């Protein structure tokens, strides 16, 4: 599988946009084919790579499969972000009032900036400013 992936990457990184194959399906350099008088067919490497990967069981045109593969990679490596989006938090009027009261105490003590306080409570700076305006 690793060799297949390396070959796919190499094919896709070629600058001329096409790979050339002989009648029996072997890849060949265009200049080599011309010097030997071998007939070749230009092939879009992306299509060929997709076909080879599908033959190996990697269906990269299937969005559901790609999402599952990406999730697997992130879980195995531990450095991916889950695909589920977090829901925005809403605050009740009483919660907003308590937060503003807490800010007044923090402000009087001169301990934090408005931006730092807003980050700490998990609210956007502009949202927090709007709450202060009332």
End-to-end C-alpha gap: 61 Å
Oligomeric nature of the chains: single chain
Mean pLDDT: 84
Order of helices and strands: HEHEHHHHH
Please tally the β strands and state the result. Answer: 2
Given helix and strand content, the structural type is: mainly alpha
For the sheet with most strands, the description reads: 2 strands, antiparallel
Radius of gyration: 29 Å
User: So how many helices?
Assistant: 7
Strand order of the largest sheet: 1-2
Point out poorly predicted stretches: none
> What characteristic shape results from the CA principal axes?
rod-shaped
Strand content: under 5%
Helical fraction equals 55-70%
Question: What features would you highlight for this structure?
Answer:
mainly alpha, two-stranded antiparallel ribbon, 134 residues
Task: Please give a quick description of this structure.
With 134 residues, the chain is mainly alpha-helical. The protein has helices at residues 2-13, 30-36, 45-55, 63-77, 93-109, 114-121, 125-133, and strands spanning 19-21, 41-43. The protein is built from seven helices and two strands, in the order αβαβααααα.
Report what the structure shows:
This protein has helices at 2-13, 30-36, 45-55, 63-77, 93-109, 114-121, 125-133, and strands at residues 19-21, 41-43. It has 134 residues and is mostly helical. It contains seven helices and two strands; from the N terminus they run αβαβααααα. The longest helix has 17 residues, at 93-109. The model has no long low-confidence stretch (mean pLDDT 84). It has a two-stranded antiparallel sheet. Helix 1 packs antiparallel against helix 3 (45-55). 4% of the residues are buried.
């Amino acid at each position: 599988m690793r060799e297949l992936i390396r070959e796919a990457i190499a094919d896709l990184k070629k600058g001329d946009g096409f790979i050339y194959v002989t009648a029996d399906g072997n890849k060949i350099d265009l200049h080599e084919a011309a010097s030997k008088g071998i007939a070749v067919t230009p092939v879009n490497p992306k299509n060929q790579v997709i076909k080879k990967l599908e033959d190996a069981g990697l269906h990269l045109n299937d969005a559901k499969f790609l999402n599952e593969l990406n999730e697997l990679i992130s879980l195995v490596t531990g450095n991916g972000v889950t695909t589920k989006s977090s829901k925005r938090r809403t605050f009740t009027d009483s919660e907003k009032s308590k937060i503003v009261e807490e800010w007044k105490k923090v402000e009087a003590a001169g301990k934090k900036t408005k931006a730092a306080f807003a980050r700490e409570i998990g609210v956007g700076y502009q949202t927090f400013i709007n709450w202060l305006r009332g």
